[in-house]
Amino acid sequence: MSAQDKRVIPFGYKLVTGIVLFIGIFILAMIFGAADTTVKDVWLALTSHDTGDILSIIREIRFPREVAAIFVGASLAVSGAIMQGMTRNPLADPGLLGLTAGANAALAIAIAFIPSAGYFGIMIACFIGAAVGAAMVFGLGSMRRGGFSPLRIVLAGAAVSAFLHAIAEGTALYFKISKDVSMWTSGGIIGTSWSQLKIIIPFIIIGTIISLILSKQLTILSLSEEVAVGLGQKTGRVKAILFVVIILLAGASVALVGNMAFIGLMIPHIVRAIVGTDYRFIIPMSAIVGGAFMMLADTLGRTINAPYETPVAAIVAMVGLPFFLIIVRKGGKAFS
For residue 196, is pLDDT > 80? Predict the structure, then answer.
């Protein structure tokens, strides 16, 4: 799709189309699974106070699970879009640049040393770990002259991620908490509860709203830092706020579902092919497409080998790794 074609179709139509597809995938996700349900069952479960085994499964298991998928997919897609715009690195992704690995390591340490931390404490630990992981990656990536380069950042991300994953595994083995840690870091949304969502969702909403407010500045920053400075933008302040937003979104996602790579890489590239390079359009569309993609992956995970679960992280990786290689081959451009 050329830039001219992207302007011909108004963004409003694209947004409505995205929302319709999102709703369609949500309905499919609520219907399909190990337990046979119908559209009527889903409607009754969401709109009435009727009781029954099927309705309870939908209300207490499937519905919170899909809500988690929506918010995790949206937060990872938005954080990936922000990272790609802020660093002008087409390979940027929270899972590839150390954020999720840092959050995982902090999670393991928190479980080992503060077993009574509770869900809120675990989430704060994930925020801190995500910040440390990102700082290590960007610190390593900027040690040599020439500033950041996409390849150098990705290599630093791979090294730091491996190191932090080793810390998480070592801590889990030494303190005999491997089972507890693996329940968090397996990259799935099995067993998500409403109590967890009540803690996590506000952070994701706040991060997304801030990113929407700063989307115009992010668009300018994504073109050139010199242009941004020339237009009077306080780039240091904008970057600092966006960095905090990325940590909020990535840390909250890891606290809920564990390690999940490639969503933050794929979705922004797909969205840019649809709406262009303006982050006022990229961020809301990334949230919608990311949520829909995560719901679709979760539905596949529940139905491919029902009643057994296929890890969502494995399904995402099967799509994401070829996508990553395509982007590398095309020099940072996928469908645009």
Answer: yes
